[in-house]
Amino acid sequence: MREIVIGAAQMGPIQRADTREEVVARMIALLDQAHMAGCTLVVFPELCLTTFFPRWYFEDQAEVDTWFESEMPNAETQPLFERACEHGIAISIGYGELTPDGHHFNTQILTDTQANIIGKYRKIHLPGHDEFDSERSFQHLEKRYFEPGDLGFPVFRNMDAWMGMLICNDRRWPEAYREMGLQGVELVVLGYNTPSGNSQNAGETAEMRGFHSDLSVQAGAYQNSAWVVAVAKAGNEDGHPLNGGSVIVSPDGVIMQKAQTDGDELLVQACDMDATKFGKASVFDFKRHRRIEHYKRIASQTGVVYPDGTKG
Ligand code: ING
Asked: At 32, which helix (H) or strand (E)?
């Protein structure tokens, strides 16, 4: 048995005026709580150091860059890394990454239990739009502020297990999980910031968004026989509600833990990485069952092409 006690550290709202120091203090409190509960790995949300700034329209790149980190750890986050090392807890955190050569990514990192960064993922599926859209009830400018990730879907060896990361919208795309499933991933950790409403469809309810989030994460877990930990930044940020509903899902696709609030809330689950083995050796024994000679469109075609040749 290769058990890892995993904490899903859901965070409540971060207001535009909140400082990184205030946020890191909340994260350290969750980390201390996780330590008391026996966790050795804690997952934090997407963009967990700041408010979900892609909801705001900025023209001045210097102002955009204030939402990014140019190094990790840095002065503001060093106390978090130090506390994680003291506790012997591996962490995964999401943040806006500004690289030394000026690239902007929506990034998630993973450390070992001594706070050494052993893995990085840059969000590939960027939702939303890149110009101000007056038709929307609120903006979602991820395509404006971030470049698509350039690292693929890597899988890392950590704590005697194969671990990968996704970020938010990635969890809706089965290709993302399968790219890691084909590397033998046993644990996928992901953070998300999901607006409770649809800026283009007032009829879409928060409940439906929660259903779609669970559906996506449960499917990804089951279809790749992997644990999936999906952690929200939740609650009302400057009048803009974000869905909570963080979950820890088993390799059978069963929700083992689910957040009950829209605030800072820790879920804890003992996750046996060996529980992934049976699915990988039976129903999802890829080498025995997959027929890649029939899968050509998935990796060679971006959008819809109808059988009569017209494009969707
Ligand atoms: N947020 C949302 C997400 O994928 C979204 C955007 C919501 C897209 C619902 C489609 C449907 O959860 C981020 N940050 O990707």
From this structure: helix 20-36
